[in-house]
Amino acid sequence: DVKVTQSSRYLVKRTGEKVFLECVQDMDHENMFWYRQDPGLGLRLIYFSYDVKMKEKGDIPEGYSVSREKKERFSLILESASTNQTSMYLCATESGRVAKNIQYFGAGTRLSVL
Amino acid sequence: AQTVTQSQPEMSVQEAETVTLSCTYDTSESDYYLFWYKQPPSRQMILVIRQEAYKQQNATENRFSVNFQKAAKSFSLKISDSQLGDAAMYFCAYRSDAGGTSYGKLTFGQGTILTVHP
Q1: Do B104 and A102 touch (CB under 8 A)?
Q2: Which B residues 33-52 touch A at CB under 8 Å?
Q3: Could you tell me the pLDDT band of residue A100, with boundaries at 50, 70 and 90?
Q4: pLDDT tens-digit profile of A28-73?
Q5: Nearest by CB: B97 against A40, A50, A99
Q6: Which residue, among B112, B77, B70, has the nearest Cα to B91 in the 3D structure?
């Protein structure tokens, strides 16, 4: 089974703090994604990566950056957290670049920015 | 840009009954995939069922089936013999198969919370 692990289930941070959300997968998948989930808005893509050191912007990249130094790890970085970044963050992985592929998700990190 | 709309924020069903969750999408493309994902409370989101747009036959997975109407751009999920474990948030999602810059992006609907009553 694919295992996608997000480092924290719940996180509380202060406005202005630098926040790191980590995602690790154990299935050697090439593609990794970061989504943000908000009520009434569904999931929105923040950033994704097809390979080590590669990254591409999704629909809502503003205020976020990412890092992929190793194939199995994809980090989401909030350079200066703001209250409007309070949300559920989901990491996902998939193998290869085929449209029919399934994405496998982590359990999510619920971030509160105070 | 493609959009996916789930017009039912919440649905409920009695155990053992059948429920249908609605999803519509907007696209100008002919080749794409549609997905239903399930997110149980405090648990990971998992794939329920997948439909290729070029296939006229509706996909089925045990108690889960879809009604795919390509011309109407509708993709509903039917859950038969509902069980307590079916209670979850369900997301409809679309992905283009056109390749190029459209690849890789799943577009999700707003989600429907399904409650199953014993």
Answers
A1: no
A2: 33, 35, 37, 42-47, 50, 52
A3: confident
A4: 999 999 999 999 999 999 999 999 999 999 999 999 999 999 999 9
A5: A99
A6: B112
